[in-house]
Amino acid sequence: MAAASGLASAARALRRWADAAIAAGLYAVAAAVGLASVAAVNAQGLLSGEEVSVSLLDVVAVPGRFQPTVYATNFAGHVQFWLFSHLDPSFDLFYGRTWKALAMALVAPLVHATLRRRLGCGRGPAALGALAAVLLPGVGAVAWLATENGLEVVWGLAALLLATSQRRVWVLAPVAAGVAVSSYGAGLAWAGAVGALVAVRLVRSPSRVRHLRAVLAASAAGLAVVLVPLVWWEGGGRIVLGGGSVGSADPVAALRSLGGELFVRGESYYYFTDAPALGSPWLAGVLAVAVVAGTALRPRLWPWTLALVLTVVLYALSGGVLGVRRAVAIPVLVALALAVVVDVLARRRAPLARLLLVTAAGVAVLGPLGGQYLDIRDGWRTGRYALPRDFDFPIAEGATMAEEVTALTGRLNSGAATYREIAAEREGERSLAMAWLLAVRRGGDLTGLATPEQIGDLVAESPRCTADCRPVPGRP
């Protein structure tokens, strides 16, 4: 009896180690894909305006305690890029893309863990779902983008993994959900799914009174994560809804646009490819069917399906400039549903038939997605999908953006120009933030450079500052 029990324990440990090794391999593949995208896009030598704002200006604003614009409402996202900037040993203008790609690569092992440990899938279908999740264009096109979009998916997946745990750590899920919301507004959908699941667990738990106290404390902590920027930003600020509002929403037009981007063609703001977010019309159709079939065949999929539904609802009720970058959860969650369906179809077959079915599904899905990824990456490298020059930062003919920042910094260091003169000839906040952050992270000369406080002053004085852009008390 003892020997049998020991063998069973050893077998379980071996399975856990095997799963961990596969998850590590999936992360390595996803990271390699993301970093290859970064290298391809960096060949254009340009940072887009929002990338400068998020990975540089917002990072300067965190210690400076000023909210740069009414759109800078994803405080946990700002803090994550601030941490990335400290971790990078060879900091440069494009560091944010590298670290965003490494962070988004976590989607692969998180999807794998969800499929294996929560949805009972075999290793083959779980690996298929994880790889599809990172190769679908709706994920790959934002995985390298040095903005907050997509970070909420990493935290949302982690939150649902916590919420479905059989250990008592499940009560901490609201904290991770709060980070998802603060990372990017689309995290509200993940928080809604986590809230529904936690409520169901409380109702079903025989020890719900004891658990209720812990859940309430974790929920308060998650809410504090969302609300903390109102205290951190001097003079107040805005949270979560900087990119749009319910008042300006057109649900019918929004859903029509989203359907087109998912199934037909990607052509929205800051989505630098024309590929549909779900790969192709035929694959999008298969994935849509998989969501319905997967939830029906394996009902425990419902929390992830709910997150998908809430993402669509949130998208429909959002205003501002819409785009698939607000719905990165959809390709991730449909890939997860596809893996569930493949597992259900393969589960009761003989080992050889099961292997052939999973392999065929992998070739049918991952083959076209891999070829499409290579084509998209080539488009970024060659400039076929050109990044926009969408803020006032003139670059001398024949120079790169990095060289222009170096020249600007040299003018400030030498006293040839003051930071206010620089601000008068170009967009001062973003330009000066690039110069200061590069110098301070590299241990360079800060002489003449605008400090975070002075950049905050420029923000308050800027003609782009609206009534919601609140100047810091005591400053002009």
TrEMBL record:
Keyword list, A-Z: Membrane, Transmembrane, Transmembrane helix
Annotated source species: Geodermatophilus ruber
Residue intervals passing through the bilayer: 20-41, 98-115, 127-146, 169-200, 212-233, 279-297, 304-322, 328-346, 353-374
Keyword Thylakoid found: no
Name of protein: Dolichyl-phosphate-mannose-protein mannosyltransferase
Organism domain of life: Bacteria
